[in-house]
Amino acid sequence: MNAWAAWGGMAGLGAGAGLWLLWAAARARRPSLVERLEPYLRPRAATSALLHDGDRPRTGPFGLLVELVALPAVAARLERLGSPADALRRRLDRAGADETVEHFRARQLTWTVLGLAAGLGAAILLAWTRPTPGIVLAAVVVLSGGVGYVACDQALGWAVRRREERMLAEFPTVADLLALAVAAGEGPAAALDRVACGTTGELSRELTRVVRAVRAGAAVPDALTAMSARTGCVPLSRFADAVAVALERGTPLAGVLQAQAQDVREAGRRVLMESGGRREIAMLVPVVFLILPVTVMFAVFPSLAALRVGF
């Protein structure tokens, strides 16, 4: 009986999701009066085409689901469950993701639906094998959906940390190349352009955006400050502040860049030493709880065997 109830719940859930998608699609196709008049009454802010990559996807593989998530009512409900749109936009920029907030919400919703489907399958299998209370089956389904929702957010956090680690690893080399270019007689903008075109990596992508902003009319210190705000890395923030101060006061820029690269190398060396110390302590766990008891057993067992034979 529980299995038939689970199959009925699955069918009802699929039918409800299908009807909701049809209703939302019909509502999305019908623009409101405000949306029809907005292009004429509220013009969009004009920006230079140099600031755009040109390859940012609009909807990705989700298509209609992104448009449904972009609806005000759906977006407001998803914001209550997760982080606000501004904070999520900053996290996407820090992760270097070429997707919009609605695209990430659609992916998060997809992961949640997949988690619910996996939980529903587990609940059906559990109800088929043994009698299980309905509240336990419902808890399994809800927990599986929550795990899918949280896993998508955690995946974004892991992407942010990995990208920041790669940028910090690339920063000393990029700073040395900038110092060499400036020492050879090139200006700050030309040095940034040369290094961005001659290198690859996450930091090179950010330097390319800085070069686009400079070509669009922004000052080099302002473009570097915007880069540090996008990335959220403390060394890059110090680098942007040092370059801005050097350009304002006329300090030799090559020395400043070399000093920044040396500071980042020293910070990386300290982090490596701290990580080695933590791993050294963690290595004591298998030694104390696995290797040492086995060694004691090998040392004590012959004596115990000899005493038993003597008695």
Description:
The radius of gyration is 29 Å and the shape is flat. The chain has helices spanning 2-29, 33-41, 64-69, 72-81, 85-95, 101-129, 134-183, 188-198, 202-215, 220-231, 234-249, 253-310. The protein has 311 residues and is mainly α.
- With helices defined by DSSP (H or I, 4 residues minimum), what is the helix count? 12
Strand content: under 5%
Cα-based radius of gyration, to the nearest Å = 29 Å
Separation of the first and last Cα atoms: 65 Å
Please provide a brief summary of the model.
The protein is mainly alpha-helical and 311 residues long. It contains 12 helices and no strands. Helix content is 82%, strand content 0%.
Feature tags:
311 residues; mainly alpha
List the helices and strands and how they pair.
Blueprint (H helix, E strand, L loop, with lengths): L1 H28 L3 H9 L22 H6 L2 H10 L3 H11 L5 H29 L4 H50 L4 H11 L3 H14 L4 H12 L2 H16 L3 H58 L1
Protein name: Type II secretion system F family protein
Pfam families: T2SSF
Subcellular location: Cell membrane
